[in-house]
Amino acid sequence: MRQVFACILVILSFLSISAQSDDQPVLWSSELEKISATEYQLIMTAKIADGWHIFSQFTPEGGSLPTQFTYKNAGDDFILSGSTSESETQKKFEEVFGVEEIFFIKNAVFKQKINLKNTSIRQIEVNVWYQVCKEVCIQQEHDFTFVLDGGAAVSNVKDIDERSLAMGNALRLNLKNSALLNDAKAASKEKSGIWGIFALGFLGGLIALLTPCVFPMIPLTVSFFTKQSKQKSKGIVNAILYGFFIILIYFLLSLPFHVFDSLDSQILNTIATNIWLNLAFFVIFIFFAFSFFGYYELTLPNSWANKMDDASTKVGGVIGIFFMAVTLAIVSFSCTGPILGGLLGGTALADGDVATNLSAGMVGFGTALALPFALFALFPAWLNSLPKSGGWMTTVKVVLGFLELALAFKFLSNADLVGHWGVFKREIFIGIWVVLFVLMTLYLFGAFKFPHDGPKQKLTSGRKGLAVLSACFSIYLGLGLANIVDLKLLSGLLPPEFYSIVKKENNCPLGLNCFKDFDEGVAYAASVNKPILVDFTGWACSNCRKMEEQVWSEVDIYPILKEEYVLISLYVDDRAKLPKAQQFDFQYDSGRVKSIETIGQKWGTFQTLNFNAASQPYYVLLSPDLEVLNNAVQYTDRDTYKNWLQEGLKKYKTPK
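Below the sequence we write its predicted structure tokens.
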């Protein structure tokens, strides 16, 4: 089980593995064999570093992920002759997964024959996606370009055809008074919720402190520093340094996301709203929840902790303290891993720059973990006031398990919304949450136990208080399900109100008339002589739902939206495929090419290209002839939004 969650941790980018051999565990090379004028054989060879292995394309389902090859334009320009063949493989029964895995060590050779349909093409492009494993598993990919005439490979930057160029140019708007947008972007950065994310991470760290993986280590570690140092001041400095390194480690875990963000401004939004990734999060959080319920323990490989512990002992000094902090992060993973997963999930759903938010959340989490070590080193007498370890920590873990389950269904709901499955409608989602919190209430009142619970004891006042809170929340959800009370406090967590079994609305927020195509909305605005509200939103955007259900619904704002503006809602996370005739390759000014195949890719690129923004919600006021009427705004308060709408309306109606 520990290997499973080591791989999960890498998938979430919480750990960064470096070490050629370990920096580049797999080196790829390629060769092209010409069989006839129209038949070729593509040969792709992997040189695998010692200790590492990659998996066969045919490793059984249920185990590690198989190697996958994607052949660009296969079926159009050429035909694959049979499947991709492999060199000799190894087999080993993996007890963790319960399957016999098929893999390669040292070398792997893959061959694929092709027959040309279009004899004018010069090159074949292939992508390989694979998992390479040692003590942990890393997902990687590699691109091959086979040049059929033996010449130099041609970058796909130059492969943009006239049709793609025309469709790409159609995305570019000739905005008037666009300088306002630059001001808006600067303002949005100042108003970002980075401190809110920091607080969320800090709260997560405080909760982690109360778990049995971390809490008992506080007095042990503080006592170690104060007793091992000859001078009291030296012990205090070491403890504070230890706390600093804890914060540093959790900050470093967020750095890979900044790399992702530099590659493509939309990539983190794509990751956060990807259907399969949301389903993966759902499964992962179910696993996390049942670990908190006591059915199994999640640990990273013991060798990691042993190596770090040995390093801290042998090195000593400042570096030794750093390795002690790394050891804490590893051995406490059983409890902190699920909480960090929740932090990642909450950050991915939040407004603003995901990478920056995640760094803020990680620093907050690390700060909360580090604070006790520094404070108790400064005031060691406080150690006597710490509560004793006991059954209350098990209760904390179980409560966290129920919260993990609730969050798991949030990710399942995201996949349902983005994929337009129509399964987890608002009423069904609320009903599931009602059941979960009723079960949590019953547990807290002692109606049933989990495997790691001890003998039944008298309920403490704290446990009773939690039970009452859980019961009240269950009742609140139930009343909302019956439409007796509104659930605005949960806007963003629940599916949108229009995504309902009962309310047959038009898939627009609050029953407003909205357009989901920019050009159609602009044409309509011109015909009725009204200004435009461009709403860059998302099916899985929490802050978008908060704005719609808490701000747009206000009695003095809703009429303005309904009667004075033409609403154009552009969903940047919509995974529905564009008609084939509307799909194209978009070329940025830098020369980079991006395939536009879905509705969300089109509107996400449209937003970045014209408004230099990539976050949602993002609101722009335009006239039908594309004059920017006011600064763009993002998630904001009711009064600010109302004034913003009125100022834009006033400017539109002012004679030129």
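The first helix runs from residue 2 to 11.
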